[in-house]
Write a structure and sequence with these properties.
By secondary structure, the protein is α+β, with helices and mostly antiparallel strands. It has 15 helices and 39 strands.
Length: 676
């Protein structure tokens, strides 16, 4: 029997998990001496590399001194907590990585809590001890306090601590005595992490992860709980609804290095991949077909945020993407549900609309970004938190948020968070920086990161994690500025943007194609205004084109996907295509948006809300609106009883020579309700 150790590496985001796995793979002599391996070998998709975060958990193994060590690299971000929860089922112990300067952070708490609940034995690794002003001993005490607060057992509290720097490739029992390799860590894993329990009997395996190969289809991954699995063996698949489906294992693979090796049998305690099983879901149990005994399914925390997904129906529909129809999007969301456990999708009664539930803005934005890169076109609405009714009381999700900032910015940050119904619960000083902890509604976090970074000149380190549902905290003021909306479709010109710059800031570059109803900037005031960015300078032979002042354009604001999702209002969408990302109003037509429809007699109308109705008179059975603007008296014909006093009214001018520039309007829309 081969000696096996199954370990998961858990930590806060950016504390060095994937870098440590790299060094462990190198220590396992998996590569030739002259082989160029690069860095962060396991972050193998583009999105992970660009963002510098792990999104999907990975399985690798190394051989050391006759022991096979199965290593599971996990995401550090709580938005991908679903990944962490399911893969911890495969481990017998965990390496808890903590930054020697930052100490335990919100996500450290989150992942450690999961590991302790599952009864895993931890080894604490204090990483980055090469940093200036680090405090390894103090951080070690903080980890102990955290474990104690999380109700760890006596055995778990008696954890060994290893110090070192994954980047510089050394680990040691004493941080003041650096070594030149990570062997002390591998020795600690073999010494302190218990080997898997070998259980005899009928086979049992919980499917905790899946892989996909275009050659063999879906592959089930999990740890053999009991008995032995063999190639060609008949098994029973215990489903969610309690049914048992008979299947046959075509091939068995175990993890070896960064790849997989085909084997004939796998015994209890090892992690393996099954080829040839169909129709399985994560959480199903592979068991004996005659005497099926399902294992307990994986419990996953519920989503806290939702977003509307819909097809792209903008004027630029189908220009970029390969997959644009509702069928394409529905199939892609179904496929995502297979492996993304923390995701929920609900089909709305309205055609082509889905509500997608997830853990946070990042969790959902990674899905959108992945779809975009695959060639999908779609539109997404404003993120909404999920409200629950608990004991007859309206409750909302509240998060524990940590902000680490230089002292001089602390008052700004506290003011900003308290305006969003946040409560300061603790504050500690670390040299010249302050570490503040807040309890804040999830609603308040939407759009907060950008503001915090701006207020702290980019110095703030902010992270958050779901805490619990608490009673509704009241209204939160979101973005107060209105939008600048494109009046008509066409090419945006520098000349037009230059003349409009005093209106607010723009999000588009000159020569960019825009369409009517697209949000092209932010108004300096709180109302939405429609601007014509497609107006070009008219040149004649009387004037040289370069005689006037050149246009001086302030560089536009460029949003990332998360920033755009956090920025939009309830009546706006983010349009996402493989090459572009635009913000737009849900209702593109301006007249439809403000509720104005004028029925003229074929004249071109200029419409604008310019006055308020002070009364409606009856004249020959037709209603005539009296307005505060004396020029409008008797000019607006309305349906009797349709308009109330104090309604905003529409002034219509026509380019015919009617007396007073008036035009008979059969109906009138008020801004707040249909009055025509």
């Amino acid at each position: 029997m081969q000696n096996i150790r199954n370990i998961a590496i858990i930590a806060h985001v950016d504390h060095g998990k994937t870098t440590l796995v790299d060094k462990m793979l190198l220590a396992g002599n998996l590569f030739r001496d002259n082989q160029n391996t690069g860095e962060l070998m396991l972050d193998n998709n583009d999105l992970e590399r660009e963002r510098g975060i792990t999104i999907l958990s990975k399985n690798v193994s190394i051989n050391y001194n006759g022991y096979k060590i199965n290593i599971i690299d996990t995401p550090g971000h709580s938005d991908f907590g679903g990944e962490v929860e399911r893969v911890l089922n495969m481990a017998d112990g965990c390496l808890l990585l903590v930054d020697a300067f930052e100490g335990p952070m919100p996500q450290t708490r989150f992942v450690l809590q999961k590991a302790i609940q599952m009864g895993l034995k931890p080894i604490v690794v204090i990483n980055k001890v090469d940093k200036p002003n680090c405090r390894p001993d103090e951080v070690n005490e903080m980890v102990f306090d955290l474990m104690f607060n999380l109700n760890a057992t006596e055995e778990q509290l008696d954890f060994p601590t290893i110090y070192g720097s994954a980047k510089q490739n050394w680990m040691s029992d004493d941080w003041k005595k650096p070594t030149d390799n990570i062997i002390p860590l591998l020795d600690a894993i073999i010494k302190y992490i218990p080997g898997p329990q070998v259980l005899e009997g009928t086979p049992q395996m919980l499917i905790t992860s899946l892989d996909y190969s275009s050659y063999v289809g879906r592959i089930a991954i999990g740890r053999v709980h009991r008995g032995e699995l063999r190639e060609g063996m008949e098994i029973g698949l215990c489903k969610k609804d309690g049914s048992v489906v008979r299947q046959r294992i075509k091939e068995l693979h175990t993890f070896e290095g960064m790849g997989r090796r085909k084997v004939e049998s796998v015994k209890s305690g090892d992690i393996c991949a099954l080829v040839g099983i169909e129709g399985f879901e994560i959480g199903d149990t592979v068991t004996d077909p005659v005497n099926p005994e399902p294992l307990e399914r994986i419990a996953i925390d519920e989503p806290t945020m939702s977003m509307v997904f819909t097809i792209n129906d903008s004027p630029f529909f189908g220009k970029d993407g390969k997959f644009v129809t509702s069928r394409h999007i529905a199939e892609r969301l179904e496929r995502e549900l297979d492996k993304n456990l923390a995701l929920r999708v609900k089909k709305e009664p309205h055609e082509d609309v889905w509500t997608v539930f997830g853990r946070g803005v990042l969790h959902l934005s990674v899905l959108i970004e992945t779809m975009r890169r695959e060639g999908y076109e779609l539109q997404v609405g404003q993120p909404q938190v999920i409200i629950k009714e608990i004991d007859g009381q309206k409750c909302e999700p509240v998060e524990l948020m940590t902000v680490n900032v230089p002292e001089e910015y602390s008052s700004k940050i506290i003011d900003m968070v308290t305006r969003r119904r946040g409560e300061l619960v603790s504050m500690t000083t670390q040299n010249d920086r302050l570490q503040m902890e807040f309890h804040i509604p999830s609603r308040g976090i939407i759009g907060l990161r950008t503001n915090v970074l701006t207020a702290s000149a980019g110095e703030a380190i902010m992270s958050h994690q779901f805490l619990e549902y608490q009673p509704w905290k009241g209204e939160i003021e979101r973005r107060t500025n209105g939008s600048l909306i494109a009046m008509e479709s066409g090419t945006a010109y520098a000349y037009a943007i230059d003349k409009l710059q005093d209106r607010g800031r723009f999000f588009i570059f000159p020569q960019e194609e825009v369409y009517a109803g697209q949000v092209v900037g932010e108004n300096a005031k709180d109302n939405d205004i429609v601007v014509n960015v497609t107006k070009s300078k008219k040149l004649t032979n009387m004037r040289a084109s370069g005689a006037d002042d050149k246009a001086r354009i302030i560089p536009p604001v460029v949003f990332s996907l998360e920033e755009a999702l956090e920025y939009i209002k309830a009546d706006e969408y983010v349009e996402v295509t493989p090459n572009h990302m635009r913000m737009r109003k849900i209702i593109l037509d301006e007249l439809e948006r403000i509720g104005v429809v004028a029925h003229g007699v074929g004249h071109r109308l200029t419409l604008g809300i310019v006055a308020r109705v002070v009364g409606v008179d009856e004249l020959d059975g037709v209603g005539v609106a009296r307005a505060t603007d004396s020029n409008m008296l008797g000019l607006l014909r309305v349906e009797l009883g349709a308009v109330r006093d104090n309604d905003p009214c529409v002034h219509a001018k026509s380019d015919t020579g009617l007396p007073g520039g008036s035009l008979k309007i059969v109906k009138l829309y008020a801004q707040d309700h249909l009055a025509i």
